[in-house]
Amino acid sequence: MRAILLLVTLLVALPATAEPPSGYPFQSFDKAMQQARAENKPLFVYFGRYGCGYCEKTNKEAFSDKQIREAYSRNYVLAYVDSESGKRLRLPSGERVTEREVGTRYNAFVTPVFTFMTAEGKSLLRLVGVQRIEDLREADNKVQQFMKKATRP
Amino acid sequence: MRLQITFFVLLFSLIPLSVQAEPWEFSMPIEVTSTNGEKIFHHLESSGRQNIAISADTVAVVWEDNRDEIPRIYLARKGRNSQSFSNEIRISGSGEAYEPSIVALSNNRFALAWEEDARINLRIATPSGLGPIITLGEGEAMQPSLASDSQQLLLVYSQRDDGYARIWIQRIEIDGQILKTIDKCAVDAEPANDDQLYPAIATLADRVVVAWEDRRPGHTIIMGAQNDDLKSCRFKPPQRISEELSSAGMPYGKGHGVSRVALAQYGTEQLLAAWADKRDFREGYDIYSANYQAAGEQLFAPNLRVQDSFGGVAQQWHATVTGDHSGRLVVGWDDKRNGNSNIMLSWLEDSGWSDDFTVPGADGEGEHNHPTISLDSEGNLHLAWIERSTAAGSTRIRYLFGRLVEL
Q1: Domain with A46 in it
Q2: Which residues of chain B neighbour A110 with C-beta distances below 8 Å?
Q3: In whole angstroms, what is the distance from residue B24 CA to residue B46 CA?
Q4: What is the pLDDT of residue A93?
Q5: Pairwise CA distance, residues B97 & B279, whole Å
Q6: Residue A120: closest CA among chain B residues belongs to which residue?
């Protein structure tokens, strides 16, 4: 009982830092763009924010799903952007931007925002707010169908 | 969302034209630098957004760009009545340089600070040349912001030691073109247990106020602290400036987001903090403000939204603020209520913040953002901002002058 109470206390005390979900190969936006170009894969960009509660909820309730993790890790190059961060990135165009400015450019005025993009940074599909497992699965299906059509000779 | 914006635009068109008139007559915009072109990207993004300053007859703008592929800091100046900037000079050294800040000194002189190779560099610019660079900071020093009083230069910056960034203030003596450090303190004496970032600084006759982003509560809030002894760098314990909202409106997470505070003095003893605030978390950032209170236990008064209701369903970013000794106070930001990003202003009137005003020449096609503003001693408004034809296209720095008109 004491161990359970200690565990609950520790879980409650954990800061809501809204980092990307664990177990996924998220990387910075500029590195992800480079990799997406090299591998000719679409990007999945997670726009979060420090202390974003809806990000935490989506992490716990949707990204924790094993099938979602496998599908997203396989089908996309994954990028995480803290929309309030001053972390500097260098885009393939040579432009130096901060993560905050990437958020501004892609209209991440609420968090979380999940944007599927081409390797060139063109938005394909955008999900705003808390997502469920079925939302992520449906979005993945849509983007994969679009990519198949786009690459069909 | 689009429906809401359409509704407000229609509503606005049905309202008789307001009797309010803007206090400035704006000239045509001019270029701050002629070094533009493909793959050249300019940035106006100092901590506290002080990239423009006016000293005596001289207007100065400082920025970073990558014209020779390495980010470096440049300064351009012009006479107040001149129609063009000239004497553009590089002020940073050989390293990668970012986020310059400027403050006006007397007699057409300016102090400049910037980040270079994870240190803070400073120097003086006078009509006769540039003073030597001094380098400050340890660990990873960044995001400098400057203020001055008649006796000294005051520098605040964020420095990452042992994992967390903390706000520091450095007092500096000016001897001609030579800068000499006096003393340095952490603004918050408590050891950091999360990041303190993007400090802004302003001075009153007998005190200094510093505000910054603070991540210690598990989300970002705006904090502030004051020092009422100009001969010391020690500050009183900090207080929260951005308000804590009731948890009923925020069912998940530690709290809402805030971003990039700016500070400015106005009147004789007044001071305003302005920042981007996402308390209305469905519609993105709004511009909020709080007035410094010299008396009483609370350092800052309750928060007030600066922008008007028409901007409530659009996003506002990049707050900048300026004031003068007669009590004029202006807040600027970039605003997407018309679809693209335009520069907007609101100023303090007897009844509160004015209706929002789109600056002619800093609006229209393309993107207009990252404003920096300054009032001169006659109440004229000077504005510089970044303009680009597309969201990811190459950039230009534009300037325009708003001549004060009697209303």
Answers
A1: 25-151
A2: 278, 281-284
A3: 25
A4: 87
A5: 34
A6: B392
CB contact under 8 A, A50 and B215: yes
Minimum CA–CA partner of B285 in chain A: A109
B117 near B98, Cβ under 8 Å? no
Query: Per the CB < 8 Å rule, is A110 touching B39?
Result: no
- C-alpha A135/C-alpha A131 separation (Å) is 6
Q: Which of residues 339-398 of B touch A (CB under 8 A)?
A: 369, 391-392
Which of A55, A100, A109 would best serve as a mutation to test chain B binding (most B beta carbons within 10 A)? Answer: A109
What ipTM was estimated for this complex?
0.86
How many pairs of residues across A and B have Cβ atoms under 8 Å apart?
83
Q: Residue A93's closest chain B neighbor by CA?
A: B39
Show residues of chain B in contact with A104, CB under 8 Å: 317, 369
CATH of region B257-407: 2.120.10.10
| Mean pLDDT across B190-209 | 93
Q: What pTM value is reported for the model?
A: 0.91
Q: Which long-range contacts (CB under 8 A, 24 or more apart) does A3-6 make?
A: none
Tell me if chain A has a CB within 8 Å of the CB of B45: yes
- Distance of residue B248 Cα from the nearest chain A Cα, in angstroms: 13
Looking at residue B296, what is its pLDDT? 83
Identify the CATH number of the domain in which residue A72 sits: 3.40.30.10
Distance, in Å, from the CA atom of A29 to the CA atom of A106, rounded to the nearest integer, reads 12
Does the beta-carbon distance from A16 to B254 stay under 8 Å? Answer: yes
Q: Which CATH superfamily is domain B45-240 in?
A: Glycosyl hydrolase domain; family 43 (2.115.10.20)
Q: How many CB atoms lie within 10 A of CB B52?
A: 26
Of the listed ranges A6-15, A95-104, B30-39, B258-267, the least confidently predicted one is A6-15
CB–CB contact B315 A109 (8 Å): yes
* Number of domains into which chain A is organized: 1
The yes-or-no verdict on residue B251 having pLDDT over 50 is yes
Place of tokens 């997670």: A46
Q: Give per-residue pLDDT as tens, B306-340.
A: 999 887 778 899 999 999 999 999 999 999 998 89
| A17 within some domain | no
Residue A96 located in a structural domain? yes
pLDDT of A10 higher than 70: no
Q: Domain ranges in chain B? A: 45-240, 257-407
Cβ-contact B97, B107 below 8 angstroms? no
B126-174 pLDDT, tens digit each: 999 999 999 997 889 999 999 998 779 999 999 998 789 999 999 999 9
Is residue A20, in this structure, part of any structural domain at all? no
Query: Could A111 and B254 be called an inter-chain contact, meaning their C-beta atoms sit closer than 8 Å?
Result: no
Given a contact cutoff of 8 angstroms between Cβ atoms, the answer to whether B156 and B199 are in contact is yes
